[in-house]
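User: quick one, fold this
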Amino acid sequence: MKIRHLLVALMSVALLHGGLATAVAATQAPTKTTASKASKKAAVAKKKARAKKATKRATKKVALQRSARAARPPAEEAMVALDKAGFPLLRSAAFLVANEKTGAVILEKKSESVLPIASITKLMTAMVVLDAGQSLSEELVVTTADIDTLKGTGSRLAIGTRLTREEMLQLALMSSENRAASALGRHYPGGIDAFVEAMNVKARLIGLNDTRFADSTGLNPENVSSPRDLVRLVSAAGTYPLIREFSTASERYVKIRGRLHRFGNTNSLVRDPGWEIGVSKTGYIREAGRCLVMQAWIFNEPHIIVLMDSDGRYSRTADAKRIKRWFEEGGAERIAVLGEQKEI
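Assistant:
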């Protein structure tokens, strides 16, 4: 009996010990889990803090880089490279810069060379259209006759598009729309042949002796002129308020077949607040290279800039910026002091 009682007592003690262990474990388990969760939260917080610091450093670095870039002048605004005579080195094959007010030639190269002028032609197209006195509100229709079969250029003016003469005129001047220029010529009294004849008559009247026109768009490389003649052409075009307005507008929205289409200016300088431009026209065909003509105000005086056959997509614009920068650096004043200026 004593032995049995002893065994029961031992079993009770064992059971009691086991229950206590379980209870202890039960009380300790949540503590361990809580500690584990707290540890994970702390690690995540540290990681986020490190990430935040890294982001701040990266942001600060980018800001410093941007500040450094802003402090450095762009390539075209850096000191202009000059030739031995002190003239700016340009990438246009032929050019002329003249003071429109005084007629003084400030820069020139091959100014009497007769070259294809591409869409610079459209300045004369606009003058002939306005001289004819036809209604600007009259609706013109784009037809298959306006498709470019010579160069194969495209257009957003689909066959059947109906726009007013005013809209066609602005798209021709601002966006260099070939179908618009073609439609303007076709709707002239007597048709496109009479229109081209009127273009050439107008050229003679304003003293363009090196200039010939073969169409109203400039796609035909037989539209030719010289830098010297183009100075006169730009000056004459500048006497037409609508040409001044339309050629320098940055954009226009036109409704075509029920949808609004945005047309932008082909000369990015009209959107540059550093430029004051009165007349603008770009041009390009393979035979002409990249061309740009402008009447621009520099030091509160009107100057005409003619750049022909530039050898890169952006070089005509870069040349214009070089010329303006050269003025600002006193280049034109130095040349004037030396008495090397001619007259147009």
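User: anything notable?
Assistant: Residues 2-71 form the longest helix (70 residues).
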